[in-house]
From TrEMBL:
Compositional bias per record (Pro residues), positions renumbered to this chain: 94-106
Transmembrane annotation, as ranges: 234-255, 267-286, 333-359
Keyword Protease: no
Protein name in the entry: Peptidase M50
Annotated organism of origin: Streptomyces omiyaensis
């Protein structure tokens, strides 16, 4: 076993370092079953070097230099046994997948249903069609236009709120705004899938989920966390909100061109206000929103909100467990807790103020 030179099977994917509680972990994904599991820094150090050219004697000096301790035969044997049992070594059989718990049956009140047979092929066709629009030469001007639109809406906040207040007597206009927002959510989900395709990701499923009275499209990317580089993850996570705001650009131009007193002003104002809240709301870094995923990627963390709650519980307990967290972890979890409370207070205050202005 010590002289054996093991190699990972082709297609095994390893994720970047992620902070989870007091530990740093990596995700490792099976290329056939798609099953992923966490390993610590020491295990990842060895797994990343299993290329079929090194044995225990080759890896032990580097391991000792990196971690300050000797790599024992029992540790080496246990790691290879684990990788072999999971089917991650070259030549090892695929593991027998554990029986997944049966999803709750669909009902009239709630459920999910796939819409296409091959979601990956569907999003691949969309990506080929839209690929010319994904180039920086197109996206950078669109980002600048979105920022200009947000500046315009901030400058025109008073007239916009005043015009939108007239919607209370226009049920047809309200229905049109609701339909636009629903369609915007639909393309929001497809934008995640197309962005994942652009960076080599795999879309596992496209379907519809309903929680009456709402029914929404969903698009699941199964290897999202293994996309190469931070930029890819941020773009995929933020693609939906970006598209939501891009869809508002024609209505921003329409608002500028409408004369004072035009009958369309309440509709355009309401659509711009609610569409902007929808787009920017998805960027708020609170679970389960896209902004929460983006913040987690930017900080290099896994399960940021649950781990923050666990850290706060340890601090309240006054035990030594919280002090055992590395300084970076303590800063991230304490900072996120304070920021989340502030965000919730600001959101509640802003929502109350907007409702007051609209109702008045």
């Amino acid at each position: 076993m010590c002289a054996h030179r093991p190699a990972l099977r082709p297609g095994v994917r390893c994720g970047p370092a992620l902070l989870r509680g007091p530990r740093t972990v990596h995700l490792v994904r099976h290329p056939v079953t798609g099953a992923a599991f966490e390993v610590g820094e020491k295990e990842y150090f060895l797994i990343a070097r299993l290329d079929g050219t090194r044995n225990l004697d080759d890896l032990a000096p580097a391991y000792a230099e990196r971690f300050g301790r000797r790599l024992g035969v029992e540790h080496w044997t246990r790691l290879l046994g684990l990788l072999g049992a999971r089917g991650l070594l070259a030549g090892s059989p695929d593991p027998v997948p554990a029986a997944a718990p049966a999803p709750p049956p669909n009902s009239l009140r709630r459920g999910t249903r796939p819409l296409v047979r091959d979601a990956d092929a569907t999003t691949a066709r969309l990506h080929r069609l839209l690929r010319p629009l994904l180039r920086p030469a197109v996206q950078l001007p669109l980002c600048a236009a979105v920022l200009a639109l947000l500046g315009l809406l901030a400058a025109q906040a008073g007239p916009l709120v005043g015009a939108a207040g007239e919607l209370t007597g226009q049920p047809g206009a309200l229905a049109g705004i609701a339909l636009f927002l629903w369609l915007s959510i639909t393309v929001h989900e497809l934008a995640h899938g197309v962005a994942a395709q652009h960076y080599g990701g795999h879309v596992a499923e496209i379907g519809v989920k309903w929680r009456l009275p709402a029914a929404l499209l969903y698009c699941a990317v199964d290897d999202y966390l293994f996309l190469p580089g931070l930029r890819a993850k941020l773009v995929v996570a933020g693609a939906g909100a970006h598209l939501n705001l891009v869809l508002l650009l024609p209505f921003g131009a329409w608002w500028v061109l409408l004369p004072e007193g035009a009958p369309e002003r309440p509709f355009v104002a309401g659509l711009l206000i609610l569409g902007t809240l929808q787009g920017l709301g998805n960027l708020v870094p609170l679970p389960p929103l896209d902004g929460y995923r983006m913040l987690g990627h930017a900080l290099g963390t896994a399960r940021l909100a649950p781990e923050t709650l666990a850290y706060l519980a340890l601090r309240r307990g006054g035990g030594a467990a919280a002090a055992a967290y590395p300084p970076r972890a303590r800063r991230i979890y304490a900072g996120y807790a304070a920021g989340a409370v502030l965000l919730v207070l600001c959101a509640a205050t802003g929502t109350a103020a907007l409702l007051f202005l609209l109702l008045r």
